[in-house]
Amino acid sequence: MTDPISNLGRTATQLSTNSEKIKSQKPDDSAAGLDKVNSSQNNDELILSEAAESSLANAEFDTEKVARIKEAIKEGNYPIDAVKVAESFASLERMISGN
Fold first, then answer.
1. Is 21 helix (H, G, I), strand (E, B) or coil?
2. Which of 25, 33, 74, 84 counts the highest number of beta carbons within 10 A?
3. How far is CA 53 from CA 25, 39, 49, in A?
4. Angle, helix 27-40 to helix 10-23, in steps of 10 degrees
5. Following CA atoms 32, 35, 36, 42 in sequence, which dihedral angle do they give, to the nearest 10 degrees?
6. How far is Cα 15 from Cα 23, in angstroms, rounded to an integer?
7. pLDDT tens by residue, the chain, 99 residues
8. Residue 33 Cα distances to 10, 11, 26, 87, 88, angstroms
């Protein structure tokens, strides 16, 4: 499931779309297409430290507040501070450009 705000999970959707395309190819083209997919996949692995795993396992947050924010976003009533958004973009641009 894709989170509409952060688009988390989007990659899994894209990967399943690619595999469906490969399956729909002609039999003589499928081996070449499969080689392309296999060669483009990364075999990266992430290993968390014990401290990180412990922090994730014991993470606490205010579920009621999260529910209120989600509902406000869904209704279009979540307040957005345009100045803070602009400052964040300006800061990000400075960081990207190395200034």
1. helix
2. 33
3. 42, 31, 6
4. 150
5. 170
6. 13
7. 455 565 555 444 444 444 455 555 555 545 555 555 555 677 889 899 999 999 988 888 899 999 999 999 999 999 989 999 999 999 999 999 886
8. 22, 19, 10, 45, 42
Q: How far apart are CA 52 and CA 57, in angstroms?
A: 9
Distance between CA 7 and CA 98 in Å, rounded? 27
**Dihedral of alpha carbons 77, 81, 86, 92, sign:** negative
CA–CA distance, 87 with 90 (Å, rounded to integer): 5
Measured distance CA(22)–CA(29) in Å, rounded: 9
Spatial separation of the C-alpha atoms in residues 24 and 36, rounded to whole Å: 15
How long a stretch of residues is the chain? 99
